[in-house]
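User: Could you check the structure of this?
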Amino acid sequence: MVDVWLERILFYSLALVTVGAATVVTFGRNLVRSAFALFFTLMGMAAMFVYLAADFVALVHILVYIGGILVLILFGIWLTHRVIDLDIRAGRVQLVPGMILGLVLIGLLGLTIQSFDLATKTPAPYRTTVSGIGRLLLSTYLLPFEIASVALVLALVGAIVIGRRETSR
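Assistant: Sure, the predicted C-alpha cells are below.
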C-alpha cells in the first residue's frame, strides 16, 4: 500500500515538474530561460519514460534531444548577438486559436481515454529493453542500420561542403 502511494507521489511530482517547465517554455519572454526550462521539460519526459520501463527510449531521448538539439539551441541563442536581450511578446492574436486548439485536443484525448478499458492489472516484471534492441540492430536490422549511418555521414559531409563553399564575388 505504501509502494502505491510512493509511486503516485513520484508520478505526480514528475508530471508537475514537466508541465510546469513546459508552461515556462511556452509563455516565457526570455529565450535563455525558455531554453533552460526546455531542459527540465525534456528531463521530465525522460524520467517518465524510465517510469514506464522504456529505458532505451529514455536514453535516446536524453542523448538526442538534450545532448544534441538543446545544446544546439543554447549555442544558437548565445552566439547571436542581439537575441539574448530580445524580449518576446506574444500577441493576443495567437491566444484565442491556441485556446480553441487546446480544448479540441483535450476533448479528443478524453474521448480516446474513454474508448480504452483501463482496468487495473498487475504490472509485468521489469525487463530491460536495451539488450533486445541491441541484438536486433546487430543481427536482423544490421544492413538498414548501416545504410542509415552511411546516409547520415554523407549528409554531414555534404553540409560541411556546402557550408565551407566560398561565395564568388
